[in-house]
UniProtKB/TrEMBL annotation:
<dbReference type="InterPro" id="IPR032816">
    <property type="entry name" value="VTT_dom"/>
</dbReference>
<dbReference type="InterPro" id="IPR051311">
    <property type="entry name" value="DedA_domain"/>
</dbReference>
<feature type="transmembrane region" description="Helical">
    <location>
        <begin position="135"/>
        <end position="157"/>
    </location>
</feature>
<feature type="transmembrane region" description="Helical">
    <location>
        <begin position="12"/>
        <end position="42"/>
    </location>
</feature>
<feature type="transmembrane region" description="Helical">
    <location>
        <begin position="169"/>
        <end position="188"/>
    </location>
</feature>
<feature type="transmembrane region" description="Helical">
    <location>
        <begin position="49"/>
        <end position="70"/>
    </location>
</feature>
<comment type="similarity">
    <text>Belongs to the DedA family.</text>
</comment>
<dbReference type="Pfam" id="PF09335">
    <property type="entry name" value="VTT_dom"/>
</dbReference>
<protein>
    <submittedName>
        <fullName>DedA family protein</fullName>
    </submittedName>
</protein>
<keyword id="KW-1133">Transmembrane helix</keyword>
<keyword id="KW-0812">Transmembrane</keyword>
<feature type="domain" description="VTT">
    <location>
        <begin position="29"/>
        <end position="155"/>
    </location>
</feature>
<keyword id="KW-0472">Membrane</keyword>
<keyword id="KW-1003">Cell membrane</keyword>
Length: 197
């Protein structure tokens, strides 16, 4: 992990983008570490807050789409066959798959805010051929609060950014609340438009 942080210091936003793409494509790179350190670099005036936020969100979407397409074209056998090469966690994948099977598209939004399973939800969505445009919208809605809060917290903590890893359950609660509110607003607006039509 120290190597990754050194790469971010050396290559800036490019390293941030690559790290977040890989994290969202089911490679076990903790976003708390990547975004927390990016926040620290903001506090040192090496990174800009809004550039960091935008780069991280775009990377999250790109990585999620990659995972979605892998699921869509390769299916579960692909992940079970090659998952060992990327330290695949079948337990977390199973949790994400169960949530998707139970809640459908809403699971994409919910899981994007849950550490551990947030990156795995894209794959079962692809396997199920969930409508791509809906998947994209839910992914963006779920990615924004997670990214915004971690980047902001890292910049606020400065040299103590590693506290994000130790106390991530607190941030989980905050992020989960934000995502639930965003989900309620989205579905309420959608239902209102449907009734108006």
């Amino acid at each position: 992990m120290d190597t990754l942080l050194q790469l971010m210091e050396s290559y800036g936003y490019i390293a941030l983008f690559v790290a977040m793409v890989l994290e969202n494509a089911n490679i076990p790179i903790p976003s708390e570490v990547v975004l927390g350190f990016a926040g620290f670099l903001i506090s040192q005036q090496i990174f800009s807050f809004w550039t960091t936020f935008i780069v991280a969100c775009l990377a999250g979407l790109v990585g999620s789409v990659l995972s979605y397409w892998l699921g869509s074209y390769g299916g579960r056998p692909l992940l079970l066959k090659y998952g060992k090469y990327i330290f695949f966690n079948e337990h977390k994948f199973q949790m994400a798959e169960n949530m998707f099977n139970k809640y459908g598209g809403a699971a994409v939004l919910i899981c994007r805010c849950l550490p551990g399973v947030r990156t795995f939800i894209s794959f079962p969505a692809g396997v199920a051929r969930y409508p791509f445009w809906k998947f994209t919208i839910f992914t963006i809605i779920g990615t924004i609060p997670w990214t915004l809060l971690l980047v902001w917290a890292g910049s606020l903590l400065g040299s103590h950014w590693r506290d994000l890893i130790q106390y991530n359950h607190i941030f989980l609660i905050v992020i989960a609340v934000v995502c639930v509110i965003a989900g309620i607003v989205y579905f309420w607006h959608k239902r209102r438009r449907r009734n108006a039509a």
